[in-house]
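Shipment paperwork, digital attachment
Item: protein structure file
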Amino acid sequence: MRLRLPGALSPQVNKLTFGVDLFDVEISLALGEEVIRPLDSGDPDRFYGYILIRRPKRGNLTQRDFERHFSFDEIRYSSSPDTPAGPYGRVGQAIVSDEDELKLQRTIEDIVRSNETAGG
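Attachment content:
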């Protein structure tokens, strides 16, 4: 499994992972250490996905375009050409959730596809 850690956004992600610090877990596993804190073995009520949004290569999207087609727990996106791109070309981010893990995966794939094709 490969984890992509959110860096400065870790507090928001930790909240969605029921307080599990993914950076701490990744480092512990990489060092061959056991996970110190026992994890709750129950199924979560909701599954969350975190998406880094890039500027489309062609066309233009606004935050409103995303919101018109998808339901987000949270979205921040700047369509301004003056917005500097961050790591991985990021100009925004979104959090989506669903009670069904497969539906969440399809939603994430649809959002990514829409982002890559400027909504087309």
